[in-house]
Amino acid sequence: MYAIEVENLTKIYGKGVTAVTAIADATFQIEPGELVAILGPSGSGKTTLLTAIGLINEPTHGKVVIDGAVVADGGWLPGLDLKRIRREKLGFIFQAHNLIPFLTALENVMIALEINHLTRTEAKKRATELLTALKLEHRLDNFPAALSGGEAQRVAIARALANRPKVILADEPTAALDTENGKNVMVLLKELAVENHSAILVVTHDHRMVEGFDRIFEVRDGVIVRETGKN
Ligand SMILES: Nc1ncnc2c1ncn2[C@@H]1O[C@H](COP(=O)(O)OP(=O)(O)O)[C@@H](O)[C@H]1O
Ligand SMILES: [Mg+2]
Hints:
By secondary structure, the protein is α/β, with parallel strands linked by helices. It has helices spanning 46-53, 82-89, 105-115, 120-133, 149-161, 179-196; strands spanning 4-13, 20-30, 35-39, 61-66, 69-73, 90-93, 167-171, 199-204, 215-220, 223-229. It has one domain (4-229): P-loop containing nucleotide triphosphate hydrolases (Rossmann fold, 3-Layer(aba) Sandwich).
């Protein structure tokens, strides 16, 4: 079973003369454990593609299947619990880390686990393990404002991975980081793909970051114009 299947996925913003086709007829499949880059210039539709897959941005046409479940087929399927699917199957990493400012690093990760019904004790244990693996064991009790950009981004990554999601969607996760921290994040994502068997889709416009990906999709004006890598 594929982790992600996308068939003729199209997103059109607006109507009539002002309509913008941000993604046109995208079709691809991603296996569990695959690390895939989406590369393209600003405005080419990368974020739209990611958010349309991630149940954040309703597709205009086409089909999206996550972990075997159809979630969109000409728009979201009626009656779906979008929040629940997002929470249980998807992990998001955004360019801006979106940490909750009044919670500590540890609490920011714990909250993702508690929402999925782990007890406070279990959540604390897993969050501590993850943050330790991300070399943040000395930062557990710090608030986001006291963290460096690289540290905050790693906390956001820990939070996205906390529930071992089948699908991880990352939108320019290294954009705010220096080269070294950017590389560390990529190494970590690669390990996760392998160990957790998660499918990871990473949007980037940085050609230096493409090492280590299994496949690369290049997007221009809403169209995947090239695919490189295996197959
Ligand atoms: N909410 C929106 N409403 C209208 N147009 C949008 C919206 N979001 C993005 N667009 C347009 O869709 C196109 C693709 O945008 P986006 O997916 O953000 O590209 P990228 O992430 O590659 O920079 C652009 O032309 C952008 O202006
Ligand atoms: Mg974008």
